[in-house]
Amino acid sequence: MDLLAACRVLAQLDERGSVTAAAGALGIAQSVASRRLTALEQHLGGALVERTARRAVLTPLGRDLVPTARRLVALAEELELDAERARRRPLTLAVPEACAVRDLAVLDAGGRDAGLRVEPLAAGPVARADLVARQAVRTALLPAPGDEATWTVPLGVGGRVPGEGPVRLERLRTSRRGRGHPDALAGTRLRTAPEDDVPHVRDVLVRAGAAAGLLPGQLPVDGSRTAALAGVLADDDLLLCSALEAQDLGLEWRPLAGVELVRGYRLVGESGDDVRALLAAVAGDLGAALGARRVTGG
Fold it and tell me: Which secondary structure element, helix H or strand E, spans residue 58, and what is its range?
């Protein structure tokens, strides 16, 4: 039997004085209301209603149970309201700080079109992992090696001055000829922001830099994206970044030659349902916000 539905009838019967009026208030047929009361009586093992030709009167047992029936109905209605609020709760998503505001707005709009409220929160890679571990956000884009990633983003260098063709790390070797020499990159630092201070990017860069003869100080890691950009603007350094990120920062972007560096991302969350819902609704928008070149089944 449907205990809650029967309790609704009992509560309405006490309030309205007849099965017909109770059924009308609940929007059901009188026969359905009567069957529910009968089923409740059988379930509880006693008569709840004395039926007369004119009206139905609650028995002492029925009157004693009405307060509990009302509480049960009220709790059920509260549960339904809580469930509705939970369904409307935004799906929080920790994203890289390099994602442009407009791209995140497009992501949000795409989620709404699919009936999903996405609330992006920009943070560094360590902070994103911490947020999802503490369940402070429901989902997060975390760094991953290219072969384990859903999205991969090619990295190159961004600088103040435009150039032609790919940049080779060898061109950054310190030179006694100084920066006035036609090889204007000589002695330039290649800065790394926190987003790329992860093993599958940083370790590859350090090995390639050593092979190219760069000094350790030419591959600094900055504590923030702002500090890295300031170094580029103040000292004519270069910044390891994606093409989309360079565009957002107002830098000229060039690919790297001789070494392949990629950011990899995978979507994680406390609930597999959240991850699947996001991928189904906005996988393309996520890739666009990251500047990804491919989406895999990872």
Answer: strand 56-58
Half-sphere exposure of 232 (CA within 13 A, CB side): 27
- Is 96 found in the same domain as 83? no
Are 191 and 231 in contact, with CB atoms under 8 Å apart? yes
Ramachandran region, residue 228 (left: φ > 0; alpha: ψ -120 to 50; beta: rest): alpha
Sheet containing strand 167-168, strands side by side: 167-168, 252-257, 156-159, 238-241, 190-191
| CATH number for 167 | 3.40.190.10
Question: What's the total number of domains in the chain?
Answer: 3
Q: Cα dist. 85→77, 90, 113, 134 in Å?
A: 12, 10, 19, 22
Tell me, yes or no, whether 169 and 74 share the same domain: no
Closest to 122 (Cα-Cα) out of 90, 143, 97: 97
* pLDDT value, residue 198: 95
C-alpha 85 chain-centroid distance? 18
The CATH number linked to 30 is 1.10.10.10
Phi, psi for 159 (deg, rounded to 5)? -145, 175
> What letter does residue 166 receive in the DSSP assignment?
P
- pLDDT tens-place string over residues 8-17: 999 999 998 8
